[in-house]
């Protein structure tokens, strides 16, 4: 009887020790930001809308014009970097998720873990009822000669984009250009 008890305790102890070993970290299932944006570019290729671009420089309206789908692509292109592709996302970003009751949205916020990559922040706004992305916000940094450039992109799903570009040069005031491109002003259903 003691022998059976000893065997049972030994087996239990070994199984507990075996289960305490570190399990390999499961990869997280991140939103594929790059594929989402590329999908939005495919979407705009299919819509019969005109693309109105309104430009402000330092809060003063300076221009408005209709632009082509190719020009919309060119605005988005600097944000389509390898670091935001799904396969690389976990390596370069850490996640903070919270429910934002003021805009009735779930916000997935990602901050870059490496400050040397171009895109340093990604916010994904999700409608929790429809489980769809409503907006995407990205921040991009670039050093160009003696200028430091920060770009903020707000992409509204199937609707519009806003690009804010701030350029700072040593011993000069910062200049900010806001470009808004609208292609669908219809209200949501």
Features:
single chain; 4 helices; 189 residues; 9-stranded antiparallel beta sheet
List the helices and strands and how they pair.
Elements: H1 2-20, H2 33-46, E1 51-57, E2 60-67, H3 69-76, H4 86-92, E3 93-100, E4 105-112, E5 119-127, E6 132-144, E7 147-156, E8 160-169, E9 175-182
Antiparallel strand pairs: 1-2, 1-9, 3-4, 4-5, 5-6, 6-7, 7-8, 8-9
Structure report:
The chain is an alpha+beta fold. It has a domain at 33-88 and 135-182. Helix content is 25%, strand content 43%. The protein has a nine-stranded antiparallel beta sheet with strand order 2-1-9-8-7-6-5-4-3. Helix 2 (33-46) packs antiparallel against helix 3. The N and C termini lie far apart (73 Å).
Work out the helicity level. 25-40%
Going by helix content, strand content and strand pairing, the class is alpha+beta
Strand content: 35-45%
In which order are the strands of the major sheet placed? Answer: 2-1-9-8-7-6-5-4-3
Number of helices: 4
Average pLDDT metric: 84
Inertia-based shape: globular
What oligomerization state is this entry in? single chain
What is the N-to-C order of secondary-structure elements (H for helix, E for strand)?
Answer: HHEEHHEEEEEEE
Measured distance between first and last alpha carbons? 73 Å
| Low-pLDDT ranges | 1-25
Rounded to the nearest angstrom, the radius of gyration is 24 Å
Describe the largest sheet.
Answer: 9 strands, antiparallel
Tally of extended strands?
A: 9
